[in-house]
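Lab notebook, bench 4. The sequencing result for the construct came back, and we need a structural model before the next group meeting so we can plan mutations. Quick request posted to the team channel:

Model the 3D structure of this chain.
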Amino acid sequence: MIQTTAIVIGAGHAGLAMSRRLSERSIDHIVLERGQVANSWRTQRWPSLRLLTPNWQTRLPGHPYADDDHDGYMPAADLAATLTRYARLVGAPVRTTTTVHALRTAPHGFEVQATDDLLHARATVLATGACNLPAIPAVAAAVPAAVTTLTPLSYREPGQLPDGGVLVVGASATGVQLAEEIHRSGRPVTLAAGEQVRLPRTYRGRDIFWWLEATGLLAERYDQIDDLTRARHLPSPQLIGTPERKTTDLGTLAELGIRIVGRLGRITGSVAQFSGGLANTCALADLKMNRFLKRADEWATTSGLDDDLPPPHRFAPIHLDPRSPLELDLASGEISTVLWATGFRPDYSWLDIPVLDRTGRIRHDGGVVTGVPGLYVLGLPVLRSRASTYIHGAAPDSEALAEHLHAFLNTQLRSQPAGPLTPRSVP
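Done. Here's the predicted structure in C-alpha cell form:
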C-alpha cells in the first residue's frame, strides 16, 4: 500500500493548481492521472478548438500568461503544452497512465484503487472535471439507424462525416463553433437552438471577458447567487476564439447560410420536431446581453474610464427567418449526421462513496463535499464563483480549498492518536 497525506485525482488545470497549493503548504501528496498531463485536452478535443477566454486569462497559481499573444485565444494543443510545462515548473508529483478504479472511505481517510496500486490518504481532491462524458438527451434513441450520430468528444474534423446535411443540436459555444466549421467545409448545416447566452466578442475595444472580470461579474461568489443550480447549468456563451476576434451568434451563422431552427423537442417516427419559440428565445438572449452591457457602461462611467474607451453602443437584435421549419424528416436523406452538442457531464463511476445527487453530480458546499470530511471537489462550473467555470478560476478556488484541507488535517491530527497511517509531512 502506498501511503500519502493527500491524493489529487486528475492532472488537468484544476488538479495541477491544487498540487501547487498543497506544495506551498508542505503537504505530502500524489496526483493521479489516467493518461498524460492535460489528458482531456490531448485526446478529447477537436484539433481546431481554441479557448473562449483570451490568453491573458490563462493563468495558474504562480504562473501568469508569459508569451506575447496576450489577446489571442489558445488552441487546445497549446494549452496541453502549457499545462505540461506548468506541471514541471511546480514539480507536481504526477503519476501518469494511472487509472482510478475505485475511491472509498477507509480508517483514517480514503483508499484509492488505481491501476495496480492501492493508495491511502487522509484527504482526497477530485479534480477530474465536468466534461468527461457527453450529455446526450433521451430523444437521441429515436434517431434512425441510417443517420450517423456523434458528440464533440468523438468529433475531430468535417472530413470524418459522411456526405450530406448535418444537424447540430445545441447552440452554446461548442454548437456554434462546430456548426460554422462544418458549414465552411461545404456541408449544409441545420442548427437546433434552445436556451442561449449571447455576448459580443469585443465591446468598446475590449474583449468581453475583460468586461466580465472588470465589472466583478466573474467574482460573484456561489453563496451570493440567487439561483445557484441554474447558474451551474447555464450554457456557455456563444463565443469563438479567433485571431480576428469576430462575434459569433445565431444571426452571423444565419448570414453564412446555416439554417437555424428551434430547440429539438422530440422525434416521432423519423420526424424531428422543433420548438416554435425560437424568436422568444433569441429575444431573451438579447435582453440579457443588453442588461450586462448596461452594467458594463455604468461601471466604466463610475471608474472614470469613459474617456479612454470608445463610446457605448448596442448590437442589432437577432432576427431569423420566420419560415424556419418546425419538422425535419431524418429518413428523407437530407440529414446524414446528427451531432449532439448538448453539453457534458462528469464521470464518477469509480466513486464508491454516496455523495451524488439524483442527477449524478457531487453534493458540495463550495467544493467541500457534503458529509465526508477530507473530501473535496475542484474544477466544476461555478464551484466557488462564476470564474470557476474558466481556467483562471482554479487559482482562487484551489487556494480556498487547500486552506480548508490544511485546517482539516491539523484538526484531525490533534484529535486522533498517531497510528500506522500517520502522514509523513503535515505542518
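Confidence is low (pLDDT under 50) at residues 417-427.
Will bring this to the meeting.
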